[in-house]
Every structure is written in structure tokens, then in C-alpha cells.
Write a structure and sequence with these properties.
By secondary structure, the chain is α+β, with helices and mostly antiparallel strands. It contains seven helices and eleven strands. It is globular and about 60 Å long. Its main location: cytoplasm.
Length: about 325
């Protein structure tokens, strides 16, 4: 006999209920439907991970070639290390003033505390080293609650954490709802403009997002004691030469995201002598996302509360697993 949730979903399909302000689907059924879709996506991801691991194990003799896929030769590595993360090659692009400004603003906000001046941050997830906060905000009835997460991960560096967050070659491995990612503007090695399309989860409409992404090394010496600090900042952008919003089946998401990572070493160790046992990466992840379209506020907040902690644990666990057998990258 089909479950109650399954029966409700089938009934909804017959009625062709979809996301919208006049949708007749009850909020609990809307949540059940989205939750079921997300659970199925997670099951598929876990299967892909197992299959990929089995394939890697069978080709373990070639593991060395999996490291540093962008490096072409040893002679070029010093130049790449010096230029990457400085924005040197992106500064001539017309987006650079906005990129530089938004990165600076987001880094300043990420460094601020969550319990100061009664600024409205509410703790909604507390799991060991990981703590997540949100502020309730709406624009035109749409939930855009800012999120701030703090986490500590052992065995990886700030650059490694940001590398796997920034590089699109790895994104399908940890971003479960991603259907397709396109680079619509290759601004520089440390700066891209992406168009990402997400899997549709009934009854919600399908979403896409157009945003620039910039990875940067921070050298302002504000973070006392940190060996190094790296960030990745993503921000929605719409220029006339890029694919327009809300054309076709997808509703456009608008987002601002920053991942701030700091490397700390065991006292007495430095970059030359440290092993992975000496590495601690402190993470601050902040995001403000306007999902576009329409969905019940209570449903969105319930989904965020469940999915955001899963996302951060999944991503950081993925990076630790990818790095554990590779040389340390600072």
C-alpha cells in the first residue's frame, strides 16, 4: 500500500498543483513533497559517491595524476601561486569594481559577531564545532533569511577548502541539487561568471542562478594567529550579454554568499614542517538567498533548517576526504 505522502503527491500531480501564490496545495503537503524530492537526490548522491570511490580504488596506481589538475609543469607553479587569488588578471574586467566592493563588504560582515548589539541572529543548529544562525527577513513576502555558519575542521587548509568550493570541476560532487553548471564568462583563473541550473523538486518550479565567483587570498593581517586566510565570494549579476532571468522554465535565484577560511597550525609548526595533523581550518559561511518565485514562508524556513546543516557537513567532509592523501596546499 502506498504511503500517505506518496498518495498525497500523486493526488497533487493529478490536480497539477504547482508553486504559486494561488496554489491550493496545503503547506504540510508542499513540505512533504519537497522533503521527499531532496531525500531522493541525497540517495542518488550517496550512490554516485560509492561508485566513484570504487572506481578510484581500482585505479589507485594513477592517484598521483589526480592532484593539482590545473598545474601544467613544475616551472609554472610559482607563477600560479603568486598570481592566483590576487585578482591581478581580473582587475581589467568591467565587473572588477563590483567584485572588489562586494568582497570587501561581505568579508567585513563575516568577521562581525552574532551576539552583538541585539542584531537579531538566532541559533538554529548547534552540532559540535558547527553552529548556524539566521535572521528572519522577508522582501515582498519572500523569505530571504540571512544565514551565518561557524565551523572548525581538522586536516585541511583554508586554500584547500576554498579551492573545492570555487572550482566547478568538483561542484557536482558536493552540491546535490545541481543539474548543470556553465561558465558564461571566464574572467580570470580566480574569477568566473557561472550560470547554474538546479534540479526541479516538485511542486516547486525549477531554479537557476547567474553569479560571479571570486577566490581571493586575504592579506590585511586582521586575523591574528592565522597562517593564511582565503575567501570565495559569490554574487548575483545580470549584464545584457549574459542569459536573462526568468526566460523559459526556470525562476532566477538571487544570492550573495561568502566562504571565509582561516588556517591555524599547531604551535611550533610552520608551512614547511606541518603535517595534516597540525592543520585546523576555521570556517565562516554567510549567505543571503532570494529563491524567487513563490513558496510558503513556513515551508522555506523548515527546509533551510534541515538542509543547511546537512550541506555544510557534506561539503566539509568531502574536502577532508579529497585532501587526506594529497600534499598540503597553502
Amino acid at each position: 500500500m502506498p504511503s500517505l505522502t506518496t498518495a498525497r503527491l500523486f493526488k497533487g500531480l493529478l490536480r497539477k498543483e504547482i508553486e504559486g501564490p494561488h496554489s491550493t496545495i496545503p503547506e504540510d503537503e508542499f513540505f512533504d513533497a519537497v522533503e521527499t524530492g531532496l531525500d531522493k537526490i541525497e540517495e542518488d548522491r550517496q550512490l554516485r559517491v560509492r561508485l566513484k570511490y570504487q572506481s578510484q580504488q581500482s585505479q589507485i596506481s594513477n592517484a598521483g595524476s589526480l592532484h593539482s589538475p590545473t598545474a601544467e609543469s613544475e616551472d609554472e607553479m610559482p607563477k600560479l601561486a603568486e598570481d592566483f587569488g590576487t585578482g591581478a588578471q581580473a582587475k581589467s574586467h568591467k565587473l572588477w569594481p563590483e567584485i572588489d566592493r562586494i568582497c570587501t563588504e561581505q568579508l567585513t560582515q563575516a568577521r562581525q559577531g552574532v551576539g552583538e548589539d541585539g542584531n537579531g541572529w538566532q541559533l538554529f543548529a548547534d552540532e559540535g564545532e558547527m553552529k548556524m544562525y539566521r535572521r528572519e527577513e522577508e522582501v515582498d513576502g519572500m523569505v530571504i533569511d540571512p544565514l551565518k555558519s561557524c565551523h572548525v575542521v581538522k586536516g585541511v587548509t583554508a586554500r584547500e577548502m576554498c579551492h573545492y568550493f570555487f572550482d566547478p570541476a568538483y561542484r557536482n560532487d558536493w552540491e546535490t541539487t545541481l543539474e548543470d553548471v556553465q561558465i558564461v564568462d571566464n574572467v580570470a583563473p580566480d574569477t568566473f561568471v557561472f550560470l547554474q541550473t538546479y534540479k526541479r523538486i516538485w511542486p516547486a518550479s525549477q531554479r537557476d542562478a547567474l553569479f560571479w565567483s571570486h577566490m581571493r587570498r586575504i592579506t590585511d593581517n586582521v586575523d591574528t594567529g592565522a597562517n593564511d586566510v582565503w575567501i570565495v565570494c559569490n554574487h548575483s549579476n545580470q549584464n545584457e550579454e549574459y542569459p536573462p532571468a526568468n526566460q523559459g522554465k526556470c525562476v532566477r535565484i538571487y544570492l550573495t554568499v561568502i566562504l571565509v577560511c582561516q588556517t591555524y597550525l599547531t604551535p611550533g609548526k610552520n608551512s614547511e614542517t606541518a603535517t595534516r595533523d597540525d592543520l585546523t581550518c576555521k570556517i565562516t559561511y554567510c549567505s543571503t538567498v532570494n529563491p524567487g518565485g513563490w513558496a510558503p514562508a513556513t515551508v522555506l524556513r523548515a527546509i533551510y533548517k534541515k538542509e543547511y546543516p546537512k550541506f555544510l557537513k557534506r561539503f566539509t567532509g568531502y574536502v577532508v576526504d579529497q585532501c587526506k592523501a594529497k600534499p598540503i596546499m597553502y
